[in-house]
Fold:
Amino acid sequence: MGKRGMNRRDFLKLTGAGSLAAAAAGGLGGGLIAPKWVWGATPTVKGPIKIGYQAILSGTLAGYGEFHKMGATMAVEEINAKGGIAGQKVEMDFRDSTTKADEAIKNARYFVDSWGADFLAGIDSSGQALALGPVMPQLDRVIMFTHAATEKLTEDFVFKKGVRQIFRNCMPTYNDGHAAAFIAKDFPAVKWATVSPKYEYGFTCWKMFQESLKGLKPSAQFVAESFAPFGTTDFRSHINTIMDAKPDGLYSTEWAGELISFVRQGKEAGLFEKVKYVMFPVGAAMDVLEGLGKDMPDNIWISARYFFQYPNSKENSDWVAAFRKRWNHYPAYVSETGYSAIYAFKAAVEKAGSKDTKAVIAALEGMEQACPAGKRVFRKEDHQAMYDVPWGQTVSDPKYPFKVMKNMKVIPAKDYYNRPPFEGPGTTPPFK
Structure:
């Protein structure tokens, strides 16, 4: 991947809300004629199928929004070229969620009340996800969260409060907290420290990591923690705090541009020479790997909610190749979840024979979906998708301009997902 293809300005021109909706309505299929007979189509479904998608499209995290767009747009293009959903064309509109809770709510209301969306998708921030929870019964539309990871979204709102309109197809905090501990238990490291974000995501993942690792390895000690506010660019004080504690292992859920800054400043301070076992649960995100390039140290344990090298299946490799041909990029995990979210709506509408919210909810509950990431199963109890994701160590490969994974390990999702009823013994890993 020597060149990056189109620049950000050109990309936003191509996939802006107005142009995308117009393209999805007729242009994306090129001159293809929709077949008269479509598998699963039913005359009870009236079109078009309208999907309102929001993601961060401005500021330092805008790259995530662009990767969302690439995946979701690709799905719409494919579906419309093959006749749409139940014979109806798909229209999609994108809006910038920023990182503010009120903006996410405003966008959701616009999509439903003004634009007439049948379905909602996206959301990067856990805070925004939790803010949207109480709003969804009012809007009465199925929303597929494709990035926000807080476990409270599905455990509290869906399972405990009965907000059935919420689904999530991305990996929750369970991978970033629990699964990380399943990997760390086999390291010689005993004394652990963290530099993590100073908000819900960072606190929750560190707590999960500590509790799970202690259960798996009782000798584990936690000697230092330093939490960096959102938007931190200077991590030197946090790095010093950690180095002063002399840990064997470092666990950090910093992500995006903040993880890039942390790694570069950590290298300057000699952090990765002094701490031998380092884990970045979101280190396999493409914006981080591409942003750091060869500056990412070797032998760092990384993961993400999807990584383009896993699974080693024809379905995944074909999709990665198609994605690269369409966008001149390797797919990020939000590209895969955005892409798979659109296909989940397609499968549910065609199974239900309707885009009615109750009918689609019933179709999605327990549904198995074949995706680039492998098989997803939407748990009926909490509407959380269960699927496996890999962990691995960073290594240079001449085929790529960034680090990839070696020594890949996959912990089965069933072993590290919290279990309903989410309270009491046996509901959090490690399970007996």
The first strand starts at residue 49 and ends at 55. Residues 62-81 form the longest helix (20 residues). The chain has two domains: 8-171+311-386, 175-304+390-416. DSSP finds 17 helices and 15 strands in the chain.
